[in-house]
Structure formats: C-alpha cells, structure tokens
From TrEMBL:
Species, as recorded: Geomonas propionica
First and last residues shown, out of full length: 313 to 541 of 541
Protein name: histidine kinase
Annotated ranges, domain Histidine kinase: 20-229
Length: 229
C-alpha cells in the first residue's frame, strides 16, 4: 500500500512536470509562428519562400495542437460539476460539428431523453462528446450513422446513474486495438495524437463516471458511459 501511494505521488509529480514543460514550450512556439507570419508578408518573399513559410506554420500549428491536447490530458481542470441537460449539450455540439468536413455523410441520431440530467463539468462534457463523435465519424469515413441512446439506470450501490451508449457504423477495430484505446499516444491514424480517448477516460473518471468500449472489426464500435445523474 505504501509503495503504491509513492508510485501515485511520483506519477502525479511527473504529470505536473510534463504539463509545465508543455506549457513552457507553447509560448516560444507562438512567438515563432507570429514572427514567421510577419516575415512572410515582406515584399521580397518569393513563392519558394512562401512554401517554406507555410510548412513552418503548418508544423508549428500541429505542435501547438499536440501540446494543447497533451496539457488537457496531463493536467485536466478540476471539474465544476453542474446539472446538465445532456440532450441539449449534444444537440449544441451537433450544430457546431455540422460544418466539420469529417462529419460529411454522417447522420447523428440524438436519442437521449429530453429530461435526462447529469452532474458533470459543462466544458469537459462537450470535450468528451466532441472526441467520441469525431472518432466515430473518422471511423465511418463517408456514409454512416452514429446513434446516441441514454437512460437512467440503477447503479450497484442503489442510487441512479445515466447510461449513455454511442454506436457507430464505422470500421470497428481489432480486439488488440480495443485493449489499447485508452493508452495515451495510441493511434492508428495518420496525424492522430492518440490523446483523445486517454483524456476522455480521465475526464469521465474525475467527474465520478466510468466508461467502456466494445468493437467489432468491420461492423462498428460501441462506447458505453455511466455518468452521475
Ligand atoms: P486519435 O483519434 O488521435 O487517433 P484517440 O485516443 O481518440 O486518438 O483514439 C485512439 C484510437 O482508437 C484511434 O486511432 C482508433 O484506432 C481507435 N478508435 C477510437 N474510436 C474509434 C471508433 N469509434 N471506431 C474505431 N476505432 C476507434
Ligand atoms: Mg480521437
């Protein structure tokens, strides 16, 4: 027990340190990107230079995104739990995602009952479902469906909790991949960070919920969340 605690302390310290590091790298990165954008406006810049500048900008953007995702994984904000109407949170998110090309051809059925309320941090709730919907859409990559069901269920302790099930008609994944999806940096995507589900898992846990993923290669994936009601 004592050594377990020490290990937890060490991991927390390491998380703190790497979050600090990520934060420190973001500032000079912003300065690099800002300076390059200014230099790119100079009259003597020719098309070859422009190409190089755009590579620098694309890559600084990518690095910044990676650091931002890493920060939100390594150092999630303390949740500010409030009563949330989940149907509405997801409807708002779908409206936001309507212009995202990754969701072209994807039909989202929000079947969460209009009166289902969960106790969850609002921004983190959006972050959770944003990640899950984008993953589902990326697995569909074309025409397909995402169905979101929700219900109040009895929890083992006797109280009630919300059970949310997100099913997609995407590519699914192998059982080996299913075992690894919550590992930070596990990705099968070109340009993926592999931090989405690791962060989602952490957020769900710190808000007092739990989650699991089932998948069948070629058929699709099911994500089940139990959230405090
Ligand atoms: P990323 O999206 O950057 O790859 P994630 O942590 O969000 O990172 O997901 C990790 C991996 O889990 C993905 O690369 C993919 O292989 C797999 N995955 C996640 N969600 C799904 C899904 N709905 N269907 C199929 N595979 C998925
Ligand atoms: Mg993802």
């Amino acid at each position: 027990m004592a050594s377990e605690l020490k290990r937890a302390d060490r991991l927390a310290a390491l998380g703190e340190l790497s979050a600090r590091m990520a934060h420190e790298i973001r500032n000079p990165l912003a300065a690099i990107s800002g300076s390059v954008q200014l230099v790119a406006l100079r009259p003597w810049v020719d098309s070859k230079d422009e190409r190089l500048f755009s590579i620098i900008l694309r890559e600084t953007d990518r690095l910044d995104g990676l650091l931002r995702d890493f920060l939100s994984y390594a150092k999630p904000n303390q949740p500010d739990k409030v009563a949330l109407n989940l149907h509405r949170v997801i409807a708002d998110l779908c409206a936001l995602l309507a212009t995202d090309p990754r969701l072209d051809g994807v039909e989202v059925d929000n079947l969460i009952p209009a009166d289902l309320v969960v106790q969850f941090d609002k921004d983190q709730c959006t972050q959770v479902f944003w990640n899950l919907l984008v993953n589902a859409a990326e697995a569909i990559a074309g025409e397909g469906r995402i169905r979101i069901d929700g219900a109040l269920v009895q929890e083992s302790g006797g109280g009630r909790e919300a059970r949310i099930i997100i099913r997609d008609s995407g590519s699914g994944m192998s059982q080996d991949d299913v075992k690894r999806v919550f590992e930070p940096f596990f990705t099968t995507k070109k340009g993926g960070t592999g931090l989405g589900l690791a962060t989602v898992y952490r957020i769900v846990e710190t808000n007092g919920g739990r989650m699991a993923i089932n998948s069948s290669e070629g058929k699709g994936t099911t994500v089940t969340l139990h959230l405090p009601a």
